[in-house]
Amino acid sequence: MTILDGKATSKAIREEIAVEVGKLKASGKKVPHLAAVIVGSDGASQTYVNAKVKDCRDVGFESTHIELPEETSEEDVLKQIEALNNDPEIDGYIVQLPLPKHIDEQRVLLAIDPAKDVDGFHPASVGKMVLGLDTFISATPWGIMELLKRYNVPTSGKNCVVIGRSNIVGRPMSILLSMPTEPGNCTVTLAHSRTKNLVELCYNADIVVAALGRPEFVTANMIKEGATVIDVGITRVKDETKKSGFALKGDVKFDEVAPKCAFITPVPGGVGPMTRAALMRNTLKAIDFKD
What we know:
The chain is of the alpha/beta class.
């Protein structure tokens, strides 16, 4: 059984990006500049954005952190986006989700300039991904594909079940795994809450991607010997034995599933760090899109 170490792999990717940034500086070219917009004071979002700012510093990017109050109107958020679209110093930016309930997320995402859409959520980015064209791929799916690639996980001709049909992870993941690429060339089943015989489907799969946000949903009876399991979920679960009062759990019951696997991602330290590394990669890519 091989642990797909996202922490170590993401570190290697950041080091590679830092080398590229060094080359840009040496040739007198502009260093990539990433902006992050956060509306409100959601603790998890704050932590995630702060981590992205640190990643920018580590690879040599410029970064801008824009914090807006919870009560900021939708129109004011859209004005901020327009300003970022028109700012030549900003190469790419993200709008941290979720947004407050009074703001239409789709309207906000549609307002982002596709050339600066380093989250890969704009319909133009998604459409190009479906067609196999060069574009920004949303961070978590790209991170997973890169992890599979760097560990030489066999995917061609494999049966794959993706559990979860979100626009951010599940759907793009199913498309990327079915692409005529390496990794890729899978036969993919996209499962969800209304899928019948889910246990049987997963048990017959060579690769299972769990992205439904339900802690320890995938158990040993759902996984066959020698399978590859990718755990996208991460949930805080109350745990009085921990100093923090909680434990982080993935969508997979790791201790009982891992012994059956050829490859598996841990939580934490698997997909999460790769998501952050993918954002840095997309920001570097934004320089090419501007040129």
